[in-house]
Specification:
Number of helices: 4
Largest sheet: 3 strands, antiparallel
Shape: extended
Helix content: 40-55%
Structural class: alpha+beta
Order of helices and strands: HEEEHHH
């Protein structure tokens, strides 16, 4: 670690995470090692292969902006947790106790979702939630 810090170099490594090999950078920062996953060259689209000249309807852009605005809030790290890790630990504990683990099931009848309808519904739902939050805040300020 000290050698990486003093030389300003970064180590490149291959790591396996959840049965997939990843390319990673190993960095030294403030006395700790940081592992950051990276993309392989074949996983990156070249800019010239992406046609960014498509025109989005203004109504869709405005709806998306409204959704982003309605969902914006102060970031609270403790609000998030790793469900995959929790479930994996539960399975490991069951296996350690000798319990039979459930077999994974494939969902062949997966529902096809209309993304625009889902976006409209989400915008409307978040708009109502924002209205409730604002009215609750106003009532709280009047009571003070």
């Amino acid at each position: 670690m000290k050698a990486l810090e003093e030389t300003g170099k970064v180590g490149i490594a291959k790591v396996v995470i959840r049965n997939k090999q990843h390319l990673a950078a190993l960095r030294a920062h403030d006395g700790v090692l940081i592992l950051e996953t990276m993309y392989y060259a074949d996983e990156i689209r070249q800019p010239e292969s992406v046609n960014g000249k498509g025109k989005l309807p203004d109504a869709e852009v405005e709806m998306a902006k409204s959704l982003v605005q309605n969902l914006s809030d102060t970031f609270k790290l403790d609000k998030y947790d790793d469900n995959y890790r929790k479930e994996l630990l539960q399975l490991i504990r069951k296996k350690a106790k000798g319990q039979k683990l459930p077999e994974p099931q494939e969902d062949e009848d997966a529902e096809v979702v209309d993304l625009m309808a889902a976006l409209r519904e989400s915008v409307e739902r978040t708009r109502k939630q924002q209205t409730k939050k604002k009215s609750t805040r106003k009532r709280g300020k009047k009571a003070s």
